[in-house]
Amino acid sequence: MIRIGANPICWSNDDMTEIGGDIPLEQCLAEAKAIGIEGMELGNKFPKTAEALKGKLAEFGLAFISGWYSTFLLERDADAEFSAARAAIALRKDAGAEVLIVCECTRTVHGTKSAPLSSRPVMSEEEWALFLPRMTRFAELVREAGLQLVYHHHMGTVVQTGAEIDRFMAGTGEAVQLLLDTGHATWAGADPVDLATRHADRIGHIHTKDVRAAVAAEAAEGDWSFLDAVLEGVYTVPGDGTVDYPSVFRALPDYAGWVVIEAEQDPEKANPKQYVTLGYANLVRFLDEAGLRRAA
Predict the structure, then answer these.
(1) pLDDT in the model for residue 296
(2) What is the pTM of this model?
């Protein structure tokens, strides 16, 4: 079954906390519930303990999905990474999550407003040889701890392009699953339908955001940073851009899990309730068109 969730980044940004910084957590959760959202991912305004986190979400009838964890496996081995991640893993598991969302953030530029995307890190052959087995081992340790690792490819990081995603998946073991992010894939020049088709049996989580192609082109021409492009509206909710969502979902006939709206925009320009309402309605329609069953 499919469940539709949301990430609070639709209301308040984590990379630039001043974006939506004035929007109370309670407003975010109340609006999400009213729209039809069933669960939420983690954000900077959420309680910091599992008990308090579950309690706050329960006030609004929402489930906890999971939250981002930054790995640094180019700098430390899997055992050291696992030791560093223990608290994050425990919080997510105890709050009811089934997956751990990870992204390799060594030398990333996605959170640096002054760094153009053209300066993002690209791994050497030696780094790939180091990184892939470390990620596999880390995922195995995470699985032993009770969560499934899902890897979030992301603009500005070492796994950004379609070719890098394919190499990552080919070089890691079955303990590693993919978080398919339609927006990051599209902006990076990859076709999310092709990615879904190739990696269908290892996709464990889905983030849905759409891309405004004109803004993406302007960002490339102007050598913008990730955050500058976000502020200018490169991302929007599903159905408001160029992604062919029915084809993405038709490529995943056996997928069961969360489909999360994670479309960061400037709330001063794009009202979060209005846009998440639009994205939710579009997702319901796209899932129905693809014949995927949603949880009752």
Answers:
(1) 62
(2) 0.97
